[in-house]
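Internal tracking record. Fields below are filled automatically when a chain is submitted to the structure queue. Please do not edit lines marked as system-generated. If the sequence contains nonstandard residues, flag them in the REMARKS field before resubmitting.
Queue: standard
Priority: normal
Entity type: single polypeptide chain
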Amino acid sequence: MFPINQKFLKRIKTLISLMKKGIVTQIWSIKVFSSADMITTLLNETELDMDKPSIQASDVNDAPAEFVADPFIVKEDSRFHLFFEIFNKELERGQIGLAISADGLKWEYQQVVLSENFHLSYPQVFKVGNEMFMLPETIETNRVLLYKAKQFPYQWEVACELLEGNFMDPSIIKYDNKWWIFAGTEGGNLHLFHSAQLEGPYLVHPQSPIITSNLMISRPGGRFIFSDRTIYRYTQADYPHYGDSVRVFKVNKLTEFQYEEEEISLILCGTKKEGDWRKDGMHHIDQLMIDDHQWLVAVDGHSTQKSNYFVWKLNRLKSKFLVKTNRSMIMMKRFFDLLISIPLLLLFSPVIGIVAVLVRVKLGSPIIFTQLRPGLHGKPINIYKFRTMTDARDNEGNLLPDSIRLTSFGEFLRKYSLDELLQLVNVIKGDLSLVGPRPLLMDYLTLYTEEQAKRHQVRPGITGWAQVNGRNAISWEEKFRLDVWYVENQSFLLDFKILALTFVKVIKSDGISHGNHVTMEKFSGSNLS
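SYSTEM-GENERATED OUTPUT FOLLOWS
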């Protein structure tokens, strides 16, 4: 008889069990809403519009998301930033995503801002002085890592290690001139650490673990809130199942030697309504005080879905295939961009030199006009152009209208797109593609409709489908419609067609102006009424 491989036998048994029972998945989504007060009692359903989530997996356009969860809000530069976990089906681990809002109610997904070769979740973002920090869960590293923004909100790097150990959902708060970290571990335990400095070293509190063997109240469920000289701790209940509900505790004593708290109330739970996005439970809350009696609140919730094992597996394989195919297309387009832009830059280098000299003589310095524009997924990039306007100002120091500052020489540069030759450098750097929707102003990001925002799903270009179908002579709505059409129908054949039409348009100087304006009027949002 042949010896039986026990590992193989175990895998067969597991597979048979999955085939019989199916795969059960929790699909998490996020809701952001305003409240007159911080949440310390059970959510009043009649006063809030909770029917639809603000952010869900389908909003994520740069990763195959199964769900989104663990939202944290921070306000910076007059805009609200929402950081959250994206569970990537292809990688089978969490990444950190970002959405931005001008009013806190209408959110626009941006991109994945932090991805590692280990699972990430629970991204608590906070500001210390002029620097932004993020404390996510990094349990797979057996460490608690603190991240610092290199370029907020899109680029992050590890600042230091705070703790060693398998800690879940570490939550940090500064109180009484000390930093305190509450972190859960398997089995329903809650640990407490403190330090005089954010970067540590952190000391174990003498009462830690402050909770043991209690799945109902041990695991952190959101940011600690300090209000009216009181600390509030939010905790998720993982019994009778993971992500069941959220409770709030009032911290009565927090010192180096003592810790006391009391439960206030259950505040979040599932609706048990069929088809509801949070039917089966909720496990997280974050709250940001905007003004007196005005709070912005972010919560998450889930519904459980049961799938046939083979359907579930097929969906996983499909996600991986589509991601790999998309990556191949992106790499091929990048190769094409470099293949064309590098020779073009060399070919036009004498023209660029002559234009640079003429700009210096006729318009003065600086010769190059640099402006921050949204790139792929809205990430800021600097684009380069030759300046075409003077810096003429009125008696109060304000810039004069474009029509006055635009010289005949500047008009000539724009007519033949000579002012945009330097953007070949942007293509070589990877900020732009040769073909794609034109990069517009950063201010427009919060003005787009959900459909219009799709234009940022691809790398912006020097020329695009809208440019060869009217350029500045068409309305904003028509321009965005054409941009989105390109995103949904892009191909190498279409790119070649656009490049050929661009050459013809430049020679004919079509669509340079918009009506009686020398430049396109600013976009102020679409009137959908």
